[in-house]
Amino acid sequence: MENIISYEQAKNFIERYRQNWQNVPTAGYADSLSLTETFSAEAFRKLLDQPGCVGVRIYYGMKEDLKICAILVGVDAQDRDMVGALKGGEEDVIIELGKFCPPFCAQSSGF
Known about the structure:
By secondary structure, the protein is an alpha+beta fold. The chain has a domain at 32-101. The protein has 2 helices and 5 strands; from the N terminus they run αβαββββ. The two termini are 22 Å apart.
């Protein structure tokens, strides 16, 4: 299945990111990156339940405090973002406002 990787691949990617995440930004952006960002299942259901949604696209943005964040939107069968005019004026479903780690880090995790 497309977009599916093994647990070992995920673990390797995550470990590499965690080993390097504080070295990625320049001094002015030292606190911009997080280890994780957690979103509710309800938000994903709402995103995926949009008529015509066949996938999810992740954009990376930067908040006013310079924190880098994930912004998720639905994608239709023509690979178009399901926002704005493409939805005929319906309410956009755009996921953000996740919980960042740090400071909100899971106590137990498989990674």
